[in-house]
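Pilot study result, target chain (590 residues):
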Amino acid sequence: MREKNTERERPEEAHNSRNVDSRVTLVKKELEDFKSKCDIVKVVSHYVSLEKAGSSYRGLCPFHEERTPSFYVNPEKKFFHCFGCGAGGDVIEFVKKIENVSFIEAVQRVAEICGVSSPIVTNDGFYSKYVQMMKSVAEAYKNALFSAKGRQALSYLTENRGLSKEDVKKFDLGYAPINSNVVGGVARQRGIGVEDLIKYGLIIRSRSGRLREFFQNRVIFPIKDSSGKIVAFGGRSLTDEVPKYINSPESRYFSKSKLLYLFNIARYKIKKSGFAILCEGYMDAIAFHRHGFDNACAVLGTNLTKFHLNMLRRVTNNLLFVLDSDSAGISAMQRIAKVLVGEDFNVKVMVFRDSKDPDEFFSIHGKEEFQKTLSEAKDYWDFYVQQSLGELGDPLKAIYRFKRSISWINSSILKRQLVSKAAKVLMIEEKDILYELQNKKSNVNSHDSSSVRMTVDDYVIYLLFLNENMRSKVIEKIDAEVLSPLARKTFKIVSSGVTLPQEAMRFFGREEGERFFQIFTYDEHNVDADDILDLCVSELERRKVKSQIEKLEREIVSTVDREQKAELMKKAMKLRSLLKKRGDASNGSE
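Predicted structure:
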């Protein structure tokens, strides 16, 4: 049998040959023997909720949205097929498609799920190296947490958050020290190079070319995929560093929009209990698990997505959102409305009255009280209407707020239902609300981006979220230290890895958040983004020079020594001359 050209042909396209590449040995008979040992129903059930249908099994297709099951798995013939979207194939093809991995990686995952030996012999496949490295790094972070360097981090977890050392070990929590060299040490032991570490998101290269580990002085939360493999990390700052929580950069094997924290454990309990508890953060999910509610999982610092809903749909149609009682928690609930529209879920919402988050609730009331409060959870759309109306002292203003909150909804039926709910809350006739909703003159939208007057700092914020290419240019060319407080804060948030505006919104208070919303929704017509960036760079350079002049003027006033004063005045004159050459004849003041 001839050897395949591995530089031209992908391994998954050549798996029937004896040599897939120099690292893998696989023949067709071995592959067929392997598939015959694998239970396709067991593998598919790892991702999809199946029910018996004659000699086959049936469920909702994971590859397209549907409400009536058209996805079938036949255990005798060992294949799957969807009559809705046409997807089909064997057990390996299923894992390749649902996990978006290569043929080799799919074979390895099928082997792990079924508990059989893989027919592929490989020592350095990318996925294998990746998960092994992540596992080793997680173990090293855990060791660091229980070392002298991790004393403060361990104290935070045990004393501030009430976790026992057994809890810490159960959830594989760790610590990345200040100026951490944890990743470097593990990489040397495993022979992993710098470029791979960058791909893994474990180290980053600064604009100056300096390398540093991505996580520094943070409590570490390993993030696992549905099969329980560590694919990323979350980090909680132990200082006032913004943002407080960060996740590993997105990669081939990690996407925040496709994973839920602790779902690998929770999905079995969700199916058993009949509903899923969804919360906002790592510690919230851990708090539920510590108190016996193992059907809880958390979004990873992002909005709920359609992919999340597809994951959950395979095990339940009943969702309970448990929100932090602060404004960010309420805002998060309102943002996911667009994701839930048209989805066949029974959704309820719980907000603790006297506790800021689940952790605090359990410390005050205990698990028995939470069980009682489950009956107090509100229907999602009742909650949405209530939050949209806000303060009810002025019904007309409440209707204006309500109008803005439902303006994006296209379904006339849903709008009518929400109007009916609003009428009951306000205790007025539905027709009066409908009249106000149809009255264009009454539409007062404080977030209308068409009336925004943009400053240089605003344009920097705007460009940061325009696209990835422009974001890189802004980070490279702009000096954050001369920006306004809001722009500087946004710059730091984006530089830390938060690149979606809806995610960045979580880090702002109400006033900052409203201005931020106006900026990133600003509609710029027929203007070249590169031209805007050049103008921003030029203006900020002038601002920097002006700031230097002001500093020199203050030093001149406070300096007694004549020679030193003369030197300072000379420097100030040079800077003023520089400003004039750039078309700014001001004396240094704004």
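One observation from the pilot: The chain has a mean pLDDT of 82. A full batch analysis is planned for the follow-on phase.
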